[in-house]
Amino acid sequence: MSGIDSTLLNEKCDKDTIYQVLERMSSKKQHSSNEILPIIKNVVPIYPSLPRELKMALRRLCGNNYIFISLVIEYAKELGKNRETSIFYGFLTDVLKYESDCLFNYLEHSSRRDLPFIKSILFGSRCYNALSSSISIVEYLKFMKMQWEFVFKETKQYDKTHLEMFVSCLQLNIPYGVDIFIEGLATTSEFSWNALIMMLSKGTSVQQRRFFMYHLVPFLEKVTNPDNSSTIFTLLSQLPFDIPTSIDCFKWGNPYFKIVYLHGMSEAKRAQLFRELLPCFELMDLYTDDSLAEILVMILDAMSKDSRDELSHDAISLNFVTKRLHSEDHLVRERTMFVAKKLTNDQLQYESDFTIDLPRIELIKLSKLEFPIKEGLQNLPKGNSTKNELVQQFNTITLQDSDDESDEEDSRDILFLKDLLLEFEKVIKNDGSELRLLKETVKLVRQKKNFPTEVSFYSKELLKKIATISNKFDEKSFEEWKANALVSILVVCPDKIVDLYAILFNNELSLQQRMVILTSAALSARELRGFDDEFVVKPKYDFPTNRLPWDESATEQQPENNKIQDITEITGSKVTWRSKRLETDSKITQQQNNFRKYATLFFYPLAHAWLNGINLGAFDKVFKRHYISMLKIILTCASPHYELEEMQILMQEILSDAVKQQVQTS
Question: Residues in domain Telomere length regulation protein conserved (predicted)?
């Protein structure tokens, strides 16, 4: 044979021929699609039975050619649900697992125009989507961690492409990207930290800011405590860019990190941040006013006397005093004067015992850092299994469960939803038990799952009646059946979550009623996403075996695969997620992801409601703990989604706020 002729494999695919082709192709770093396709068609399908040395040679060839990975993904996709598909994906997994220099080779031996394509394969979710049925996002990120470890070790000259790739990798899942790449790699040793610093020095200002705000800040806020504050301060001082201002810094939950952050930025940046926060302070928002006053005092404490004096002569900087002193709230006025006195270096004459107490820590730049940087006292909450969160709320129930003798006395079947509504009205009017009707709702709505038009028509009234009833007779499993009834409606008509949230936010409800609504939203999200919870009753019926012709259009076609959208098709997005710490024990029993389309409807109203403020008086913390748990479950189900990054950022903000309110979130 002369030259590289992989087409020989189309005619003869024995051990010797495979060896000769792979050996000759290994002498060249990059290959065309035409050269690689015969190997994919003929050799990869028999990968499990190849001798060890041929397996290694095949993986090595793929590890040197990003086109190889792309073609394997596309070829396997064409096979559909063919059994060979698992062989192709198993081969890809082995490549990522054993060829730790893949990413380094791709970056070193590819032209600049190839880099977006490489990013879309490894970090734009194409590769992970292909493997998602067999490995979790955390396992995938750990493979990527091995790749970046090799890049850190072998790269001699960084450019902005490296940081772009690294940030894209982190954006696959922000919370777990922080755990795996920042905590688990970049801050484990002086060598890794210096490699990150060199990479950051070559990035654009946009890349640097994005990395700092979305990836480094969450980690540092988690680990900073009084004992390591000088270490964190030294880390910040080594960053090859000015620490950017964040108008949301007052929402961060760790006061020690806020102090370190403010001392780490320049005097000019502190003055800039002070001015940026004043319009928020002037709003006198009940839920953020104390946090804003605290951060403003922190800023002023970090500034020199001369800088405060200069800032106090800025007309804009003192406008807030006039506006806020008109408030009828005593605390608002006290905070105003406390900040004003601090701003004027105590030149403002105002006698009061009011004070804003802040932690006192000494910050010095260390000559040598101690690695690894580990989690400190101010831990951010860790999530538990989403299924376990729900197990605590429910007893397992079945359609046969009943302690209600009236079930036998009134056994007539309800065949139509309009009749079900009438029955609810009768029972509510007569002050009777609704338990039988809740069970009927589950059976009837589940039976009509292929008739969403009918369910949708009656859903608003059904949701209102079910959500607002209470367990007047202290009946066993009442709340479980109530939640199941709500879930049955939402699974058939997910868009009706909007109506359920309207009930939650606009009606006078008891604590238990509110908690059941939240639980129902979370359970619905899980079922739509494909999880099978034993405490959700899902009866199956043979009728109807065929849909009526005029009803077919009512059922929207759902995506066939649980796949993250390619990052090349969406702007600035990323997805997550499951960490080992957040994995569910449930198995995905359906292949379709019917939740993606409705993820934003389920998540954003709850998230924004939290940020707008919730107060349930004596039951506030109990409700908020449940609220956080259910919101975390919904976010879990949202992966993959093109807006997942925005949802995760919002969730991080909510968790920080919850910590500040001393609401338990784990």
Answer: 415-525
Query: Which sign, positive or negative, has the C-alpha torsion 164, 167, 173, 174?
Result: negative
Report d(CA 546, CA 544) in Å as an integer.
5
Angle at the Cα of 531 from the Cα atoms of 525 and 534, rounded to 5 degrees: 105
Domain-embedded: residue 9: no
Three-state DSSP string of 436-457: HHHHHHHHHHHHCCCCHHHHHH
CA–CA–CA angle 621, 624, 625 (5° rounding): 85
pLDDT top residue among 567 and 559: 559
Q: What is the largest CA-CA distance in the chain?
A: 95
Angle of the 435-447 helix axis to the 417-429 helix axis, nearest 10? 170
Q: Which residue has the higher pLDDT, 138 or 267?
A: 267
User: Does any domain span residue 96?
Assistant: no
Chain centroid to CA 95: 27
Q: Find the CATH number of the domain harbouring 521.
A: 1.25.40.720
Q: Which amino acid is at 117?
A: F
pLDDT, tens digit, 9 for 90 and up, residues 609-632: 999 898 888 788 889 999 999 999
Contact 129, 563 (CB under 8 A): yes
Tell me how far apart the alpha carbons of residues 639 and 578 are, in angstroms, rounded to a whole number: 9
- For residue 519, give both structure tokens: 């639980």
Phi and psi, residue 379, nearest 5°: -70, 135
Which residues does residue 531 pair with via DSSP β-bridges, in sequence order?
588
Phi/psi at 252 (nearest 5 deg)?
A: -65, 145
The type of residue at 60 is R
Q: Give me the helices (H) in 571-619, please.
A: 599-612
38's CB contacts (< 8 A; 6+ apart) are: 6, 7, 8, 9, 10
Tokens linked to 50: 């190849």
In a domain, 485, yes or no: yes
- Please say if the pLDDT value at position 485 is more than 90: yes
What is the Cα–Cα distance from 156 to 151, expressed in whole angstroms? Answer: 9
CA distances from 272 to 296, 363, 603 (A): 12, 22, 34
**Sign of the alpha-carbon torsion through 62, 64, 66, 68:** negative
> Does residue 607 lie in a domain region?
yes
Residue 253 pLDDT: 80
d(C-alpha 485, C-alpha 9), whole Å: 59
pLDDT for 306 equals 95
Per-residue CA distances from 269 to 197, 205, 242, 245, 408 (Å): 21, 15, 9, 7, 74
Cβ atoms within 10 Å, residue 558: 12
Number of domains within the chain: 1
Query: Given the structure tokens 């968790």, which residue do they identify?
Result: 655
Instruction: From residue 640, give the alpha-carbon distance in Å to each of 564, 597, 599, 618.
Output: 5, 11, 10, 37
- DSSP codes joined into one string, 337-385: HHHHHHHTTT-S------------------SS--SS----SSPPPPP--
Beta bridge partners of 588: 531
Find, among 330, 326, 322, 213, the residue nearest to 278 by Cα.
322
Range of the domain at 598: 387-558+593-660
Tokens of 372: 């690894």
pLDDT in tens, 435-470: 999 999 999 999 888 777 778 888 999 999 999 999
Extract the tokens encoding 104: 């380094």
Tell me if 496 sits within 8 A of 463, measured CB to CB: yes
Residue 565 DSSP symbol: P
Cβ neighbours for 197, distance < 8 A, ≥ 6 positions apart: 238, 239, 240
